[in-house]
Amino acid sequence: MRNWILTIDKNMNNFEENEREWLKHRIYVKTVVSMSEAIRLLTKMDFLLVVITADDIEYLSYLQIMRNMKPMPILIINSKYNISEKIEALRLGADEYLFCPRSNEEYIASGKALIRRYTVFNHQPEKPLTIITYHDIFMCVEYRKLFLKGKEIKLTRKEFDLVHLLFSSIGRVYTHEQIFMTIWNDEMIDISENYAIWSLITRVRKKLRSISDSVEYIKTVRDVGYCIDIIPE
C-alpha cells in the first residue's frame, strides 16, 4: 500500500518539485487547490501528513474540523509570517507552522519528523466526524458548520437543524409536519405554523444565494413540504 501525503497549494508549479523530493523517501503526493477539496478527499483516503501552503488560502475555519477527521499531523507553511495567525492555527489543531522554509530539505525534514511523531504516538480521534458533501456544499454536523464554494455560511441553530435534516437524505421530501417536529420539537397543530417554516426556508435560501452563481438547492414540493433537489453532476 502506498504512503501518501496531502498538500493544499494554489501554486501548482510547486507540485513537481515537491513530488520529486518526497518520492526520494517513497512517499507520494496528492495536491489540491482548496480546503473544501482537501476535506472531501480526506473522507475517502488516509494520509501520513497534510501540508497547507497558507498563502492566499482561507484555511483557519476548516482547521478544527480537519484536525478531528483523521489521526494525521498538519503542517502549515506561510511565506508571510503572522504571529497571531500562527497562534490561532496551533490552537485550532495545526502541529507545526513554518515561515517560508529556506529549502525543500527543511520542509521535508519537518514533515518527516511530524509523521514519525504521529506514527510513534498513534493519535486517534475520539470518534469520526459526520461529514456531508453535495456539489459545492460541505457540512460538519458536530461543529455545526456549513461551507458553500469554500466560504462559511453562518447559520442560526434552527437554520442549521433545517439544512442538516434536508441534506441528510438528498431527494427525500420532508413534510411540513416532519420539519416542524424536528426543528421545533413539537406537533404541528395549526396551519399558521406553516409560516414559521416558510420564513425559516426563506432565510436559509437567502444565505445560500449570497454566494454568487450558487445552485438553488432547496426545492418546494407544493402542498407537501421541501427537499434537496437532485442536481446532475
Summarize the helices and strands and which ones pair or pack.
Elements: E1 4-8, H1 15-23, E2 28-32, H2 35-42, E3 49-53, H3 60-67, E4 74-78, H4 83-92, E5 96-99, H5 104-121, E6 131-134, E7 137-140, E8 145-148, E9 151-153, H6 157-167, E10 174-175, H7 176-184, H8 194-209, E11 218-221, E12 225-228
Parallel strand pairs: 1-2, 1-3, 3-4, 4-5
Antiparallel strand pairs: 6-7, 7-8, 8-9, 10-12, 11-12
State the CATH class of the largest domain: Alpha Beta
CATH superfamily membership of the largest domain = Response regulator
Strands of the widest sheet, in order across it, are 2-1-3-4-5
| Gyration radius from CA atoms, angstroms | 21 Å
Structural class: alpha/beta
Series of secondary-structure elements, N-terminal to C-terminal: EHEHEHEHEHEEEEHEHHEE
Give the termini distance in whole angstroms: 31 Å
Number of helices: 8
**What's the story with the biggest beta sheet?**
5 strands, parallel
Number of strands: 12
CATH architecture of the largest domain: 3-Layer(aba) Sandwich
Strand content: 15-25%
The low-pLDDT segments are none
What is the total domain count?
A: 2
Shape: elongated
Average pLDDT value? 88
What is the CATH topology assignment of the largest domain?
Rossmann fold
The percent range for helix content is 25-40%
